[in-house]
Specification:
single chain, mainly alpha, 65 residues, 2 helices, 58% helix
């Protein structure tokens, strides 16, 4: 499986970053650690996708979502 990051996903990550820094008062260090961990988990899906639940509403696409 290949993980693809869309423009929308980048925009959402930017919005989340702004929210955590500005509204929640996270430190830059905490935010960078969180963001790194989040992206690492997403990238890990390329090799571990079989370990997770299949999305039944997307089964008709035949792509193993």
């Amino acid at each position: 499986m290949k993980v693809v990051y869309t423009e929308q996903s980048y925009d959402s990550l930017e919005e989340l970053t702004d929210f955590l820094l500005e509204e929640q008062g996270w430190t830059l260090e905490k935010l960078l650690s969180f963001r790194s961990g989040l992206l690492d988990k997403a990238d890990a899906l390329e090799t571990t996708y079989n370990n997770y639940q299949q999305e039944e509403y997307l089964e008709h696409l035949g792509k193993g979502h």
